[in-house]
Write a structure and sequence with these properties.
One of its GO terms (molecular function) is DNA-binding transcription factor activity. With 163 residues, the chain is mainly alpha-helical. It has six helices and two strands; from the N terminus they run ααααββαα. The chain folds into two domains: 111 residues, Arc Repressor Mutant, subunit A, CATH 1.10.10; 37 residues.
Length: 163
């Protein structure tokens, strides 16, 4: 059952446009706050998702960040040169490369985490606790649906579209 109309998606209230603009604004705000830490938001995300175990190899990192394999290699090279990330080559198959965060990378994450949390808290300051919980819950549900749709399309299933 469709809940949005074409008109809804062609205005300032377009969900896609709002999500895109929110991501851009948050990234810009965080980049400014990260300046003293000499790390970019993309580098921070890479370190965080690897350290948290959500990502374990360069291919997964490329998909997570929605960047090319070449850009991923450059990102990992930079983090490795700075001593923040390590490539972990499989002893049995040298083509298999894992990623690990170094002790220095872990320290960088710990230094930046309060900056990120403070940024988000400033952004959601006008929301009450229930609204914050509801917002997080809705984002999580949207993500689950989007990931399921992508998996179904990848497996060859037809996903219903709205006309």
């Amino acid at each position: 059952m469709a809940r949005l109309t074409i008109e809804d998606c062609a205005t300032q209230r377009s969900p896609g446009r709002m999500l895109r603009r929110l991501e851009q604004h948050v990234k810009t705000l965080l980049e400014r706050r990260f300046a003293a830490e000499d790390v970019t938001v993309t580098q921070w995300i890479a370190l965080k998702v690897v350290r948290d175990g959500a990502i374990s190899n360069p291919g997964e990192l490329a998909r997570e960040l929605n960047i090319t394999s070449g850009a991923t290699t450059r990102l990992i090279d930079t983090l490795e040169e700075r001593g923040l990330m390590l490539r972990d080559r499989n002893a049995e198959d040298r083509r298999v490369v894992g990623l690990k965060v170094s002790a220095a990378g872990d320290a960088k994450i710990e230094a930046i985490a309060p900056i990120v949390v403070s940024g988000w808290n400033t952004l959601i300051a006008d929301f009450n606790d229930d609204e914050v919980t509801q917002f997080s819950s809705m984002l999580a549900r949207l993500l689950v649906v989007a990931e399921r749709m992508l998996a179904e399309e990848h497996a060859g299933f037809v996903v219903e579209t709205v006309e």
